[in-house]
UniProtKB/TrEMBL annotation:
PROSITE patterns, A to Z: PROKAR_LIPOPROTEIN (PS51257)
Organism of this sequence: Vogesella aquatica
Transmembrane segments: none
Top-rank taxon: Bacteria
Protein name, per record: Alkaline phosphatase D family protein
Length: 672
């Protein structure tokens, strides 16, 4: 065993070269098995990942093992293994939960391989994988899927059956492969019956009744359970996966080694929990990364890495949790997640962000998602990429998602006036301008300390002028229209411009601008982010500075909905349904007639964010990409819903949104 192999074995990612053509033995502590004919199982199936031109990482987990056990890996170019190209024996070790991660090198680029594992008298199912094309090789097409957010306890996994019908080169997984919480309210009562409730061996129960993973045994239980599903196993066996984590592989809306379930909770480090989450991810992902178990830090693993596919595409995968700073406005300062993570006043966030950077002598580190080392690495990768396309595996959306509360409320008022008196339709623009001015003046008069509870009292001075021109007298307005308008007014805090989700790049605006400046200044074109996390479909241009008078598009962000997780819309629906302070804004999220709710959230977002070309906030699904030198073609597949506890029969897709990104243009075209 050479030194490189020894070091990899030390973190238990063993490696061997296919050119050996001989059986080798890698792995430490391998006491072996005294019963070579003993029966074993492979309960989590097989998997491959991180395709490079000359290497693949192969994975399995040995079941029914009571001690470190030899496992033989066989690789062939035919499914029947008529000729075994390479055979190597490794050790499934108890300390790594009997998982095997083995990197096979010296493979041929752009080649399909088949692999299997042997232990005792048993042979695993056969997996199929494919190496990347050699660097610089002309490549006419790549086809891949990108997915995220597959909560075992919510909705269904029919998406995996559909993906199996595709001819894919690889699958990109953007995180939330598992959900660390079980038994939460949002995970109750709406899941396919083939998914039983998960019970964690050491989980900690929250005040709301949910239980979250807290130990290595807990996280391993989650991965073992998720990978027990035959559909997910089949997906892994069919295609190599390129994966990173997001927050739920550790803790919801996490940063570094801090958890965020309650206000102020993230003041305390939970390093051992973070390290356990790291190790479980490492054990169960076929990723070409190393974990240093001897390193006491929570940053004992690096998962950001780069891939290239001939001359066509570079894929840069980032880690947006392990190095990120706290939310720019901490929950303690805001009093809750509202005003810190969600529904954050844009001007307040910009002020605090500037103050933090100033206190750090201009450094981005206190307001960063990537951290300084990874940020420079990202810039270097983008600058060095000599492929047509530069793809970014990006966990949280880069697209600005804002709402102007004053304009939104004024718009609802105008709609209400016109609905009651159709003759006012011709005055729609003038009424809108007048109401915005009147509401702005009234909201500004409310003391800051009272804005969360006090409703402003507009005099409607300019609104009266507009209506007076239409023949509506002041007394008539005061008696009939003013009460109607006043009844629609929310608390004064709503009359501001808000960022809907500051856990994504909107909450780290200075760093986003720095990254976009790097692309713009260096004329780095054809950059497309592949994004998950937000449980909705979005597509649009990422601007150099969203707050500039004339923002310039620099790259594109394509966001996939979750495979099964509850939608972005459902979160805001629950907020306006349960919060008195937001209740009057319901029409911005949905309207209801005859007991049927209609989503208005999509149009609210596109109204205030002109760069959003796709906004589908209430969906589960996945994204398929076909990449050529001339264009990137993407289709968003929205899935049918759960019915009587069962996933829909194939085809499970309810609708498809098709879009294109032309080479040389950082914009999205939605196809008819």
């Amino acid at each position: 065993m050479d030194r490189r192999q020894f070091l990899k074995a030390g973190s238990f990612l063993t490696a061997s070269a296919a050119t050996l053509g001989l059986t080798g033995c890698f792995g430490s502590g391998g006491g072996g098995s005294s019963e070579p004919a003993r029966s074993y199982s492979f309960p989590q199936g097989v998997a491959s990942g991180d395709p490079q031109p000359a290497s693949l990482v192969l994975w399995t987990r040995l079941g029914d093992a009571a001690a470190d056990t030899p496992v033989t890996i066989e690789i062939a170019t035919s499914q029947n293994f008529a000729t075994v190209l390479h055979s190597v024996t490794v050790t499934a070790q108890a300390q790594w939960d009997y998982t095997v991660r083995h990197k096979v090198t010296a493979l041929q680029p752009g080649t399909t391989y088949y692999y299997r594992f042997r232990a005792g008298s048993n042979v695993s199912q056969v997996g199929r994988s494919k190496t990347a094309p050699a660097a610089g090789t002309p490549v006419s097409q790549l086809k891949f899927a990108f997915i995220s957010c597959q909560d075992w306890s919510v909705n269904h996994w029919a998406a995996f059956d559909e993906l199996l019908q595709q001819d894919l080169d690889f699958v990109v997984h953007l995180g939330d492969y598992i959900y660390e919480t079980v038994g939460a309210a949002f995970q109750t009562g709406k899941v396919e019956n083939r998914h039983s409730q998960i019970k964690l061996p050491d989980g900690i129960k929250r005040s709301d009744g949910a239980t979250y993973a807290n130990t290595l045994a807990d996280y391993r239980t989650l991965y073992k359970t998720y990978r027990s599903d035959s559909r997910l196993q089949a997906l892994h066996a069919a295609f190599p996966i390129i994966a990173v984590w997001d927050d739920h592989e550790f803790s919801d809306d996490a940063w570094q080694d801090r958890q965020n379930y309650a206000t102020g909770e993230d003041a305390a480090k939970v390093t051992s929990r973070r390290r356990d989450a790291n190790q479980a991810w490492f054990e169960y992902m076929p990723a070409d990364v190393s974990l240093d178990a001897a390193n006491p830090s929570f940053q004992n693993i690096r998962i950001y890495r780069q891939f290239s596919f001939g001359n066509l595409a570079t894929l840069v995968m980032t880690d947006q949790r392990l190095y990120r700073a706290d939310h720019v406005i901490p929950e303690v300062g805001a009093g809750s997640e509202i005003g810190s993570r969600y529904f954050v006043p844009k001007s307040t966030l910009a002020t605090v962000e500037s103050q933090k950077m100033s206190a750090a002598s201009g450094s981005l580190d206190p307001v960063s998602i990537l951290g300084s080392t990874q940020r420079q690495w990202w810039k270097d990768q983008m600058s060095a990429a000599n492929t047509t396309w530069k793809l970014w595996g990006n966990e949280v959306s880069l697209l600005r998602m804002q709402v102007n509360g004053t304009q939104a409320v004024a718009g609802l008022m105008v709609q209400s006036l016109i609905a009651a008196n159709g003759g006012l339709a011709a005055l729609q623009g003038a009424l809108m301008t007048a109401l915005v001015a009147d509401l702005t003046t009234a909201a500004a008069a409310v003391p800051t300390a009272n804005k969360a509870t006090q409703v402003p009292a507009p005099a409607y001075t300019q609104t009266k002028v507009v209506l007076g021109g239409a023949g509506l007298s002041g007394p008539v307005f005061d008696a009939g229209i003013k009460p109607q308008l006043d009844a629609a007014l929310p608390a004064a805090q709503f009359f501001d411009v808000f960022l809907l989700n500051a856990d994504q790049w909107d909450g780290y605006n200075a760093e986003r601008k720095a990254l976009m400046k790097h692309l713009k200044d260096n004329a780095i074109a054809n950059v497309v982010a592949l994004t998950g996390d937000i449980h909705a479909f979005f597509a649009g241009s990422v601007m150099d500075d969203y707050d500039a008078a004339s923002p310039v598009p620099v790259m594109v962000d394509l966001v996939t909905a979750g495979i099964s997780s509850n939608s972005f819309y459902s979160y805001f629906e629950s907020v306006v349904d349960s919060s008195a302070s937001f209740g009057k804004t319901k029409p911005l999220i949905y309207t209801e007639q005859g007991g049927v709710r209609t989503n208005t959230f999509n149009s609210t977002l596109t109204t205030f964010n002109s760069w959003l070309k796709v906004a589908h906030t209430d969906a589960q699904g996945y994204a398929l990409v076909t990449l050529t030198p001339a264009k990137l073609s993407c289709s968003f597949h929205t899935l049918k819903t759960l019915s009587a506890g069962a996933a829909p029969a194939l085809p499970a897709t309810h609708s498809i949104t098709k879009l294109e990104v032309a080479a040389g243009s950082p914009s999205v075209t939605v196809l008819p």
